[in-house]
């Protein structure tokens, strides 16, 4: 954390590569930012820049992405939020629905790492560190996500075997890393572990076998849980937790 803070401070004083500047600003990973630059979405002082490797001076040059100004934050933020129901994982909503930012109120612009659908509760991480966000979400990272699922009826043995073998969805095979019935729940509650993050994957697995998901909670993401964080509340991650996440994402600590 301290190293990153020093880097954030230094970037304001020295010439820095444009893709790195965008990453420090929370826009995305350096690779994703290269794609943005090549697409023509990035302007420096009002002019489109499509050449990779260009350096800018943050105190002098004005950078925009799709017309929106981009600035490097003086500090990176890492937050764990215990998401409640009826809350959507976006920064704003044109229909006026409750978003995560109605709970996590900060002056600094931060972004959710991945998404949980409106009625799924539990662990959600937010940050303005674009490299970390993209590292944790990349399929090659195999970051574990653990869910507790409650069904409207008991899980049949044959269906449990099918889930363990993998369920074919429209966007590919969904095969949990682990799946197990929770004892004492009349087979209506299960723990499911995934190493990837397809959209609504857990719900779609059970819906494919004609089970109605009554409730869904992400109890862990990348080893972090909501222990000590009530529903609808949040906390800053500790330095050891940030280091641990960066190690999982394959980033320098």
Question: How does this model look, in words?
Answer:
The protein is built from seven helices and 16 strands. The chain folds into three domains: 2-70, Structural Genomics Hypothetical 15.5 Kd Protein In mrcA-pckA Intergenic Region, Chain A (Roll); 78-139 and 229-248, Alpha-Beta Plaits, CATH 3.30.70.580; 144-221, Pseudouridine synthase. Strands 7, 8, 9, 10, 13, 14, 15 and 16 form an eight-stranded mixed β-sheet that branches. The radius of gyration is 20 Å and the shape is elongated. It has helices at residues 2-11, 18-24, 30-39, 130-137, 157-165, 201-208, 239-248; strands at residues 16-17, 42-44, 47-48, 55-56, 63-65, 68-70, 78-83, 111-112, 120-127, 145-151, 167-169, 172-174, 178-181, 189-194, 213-221, 234-236. Mean pLDDT is 90; it is low at 1-13. It has 253 residues and is α+β, with helices and mostly antiparallel strands. Helix 2 crosses helix 3.
Brief synopsis:
The protein has 253 residues and is α+β, with helices and mostly antiparallel strands.
Using brief descriptors, characterize the structure shown.
single chain, 253 residues, alpha+beta, Structural Genomics Hypothetical 15.5 Kd Protein In mrcA-pckA Intergenic Region, Chain A, Alpha-Beta Plaits, Pseudouridine synthase, eight-stranded mixed beta sheet, four-stranded antiparallel beta sheet, 7 helices, 26% strand, elongated, disordered N terminus
């Amino acid at each position: 954390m301290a190293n990153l803070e020093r880097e954030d401070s230094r970037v304001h004083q020295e010439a820095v590569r444009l893709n790195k500047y965008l990453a420090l600003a929370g826009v995305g990973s350096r690779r994703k930012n290269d794609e943005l630059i090549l697409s023509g979405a990035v302007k420096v002082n009002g002019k489109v820049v499509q050449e990779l490797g260009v350096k800018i001076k943050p105190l002098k040059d004005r950078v925009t992405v799709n017309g929106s100004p981009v600035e490097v934050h003086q500090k990176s933020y890492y937050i764990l939020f215990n998401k409640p129901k009826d809350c959507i994982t976006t920064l704003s909503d044109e229909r006026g629905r409750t978003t995560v930012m109605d709970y996590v109120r900060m002056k600094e612009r931060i972004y959710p790492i991945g998404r949980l659908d409106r009625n799924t509760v539990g662990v959600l991480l937010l940050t303005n560190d674009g490299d970390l966000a993209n590292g944790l979400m990349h399929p090659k990272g195999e970051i574990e996500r653990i869910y507790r699922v409650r069904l409207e009826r008991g899980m049949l043995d044959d269906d449990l075997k099918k889930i363990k073998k993998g369920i074919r969805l429209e966007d590919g095979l969904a095969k949990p890393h682990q799946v197990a019935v929770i004892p004492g729940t009349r087979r209506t509650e299960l723990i499911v572990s995934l190493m990837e993050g397809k959209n609504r994957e857990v719900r779609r697995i059970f819906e494919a076998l004609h089970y109605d998901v009554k409730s869904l909670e992400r109890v862990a993401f990348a080893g972090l849980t909501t222990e000590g964080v009530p529903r609808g509340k949040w906390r800053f991650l500790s330095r050891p937790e940030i280091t641990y996440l960066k190690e999982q994402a394959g980033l320098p600590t």
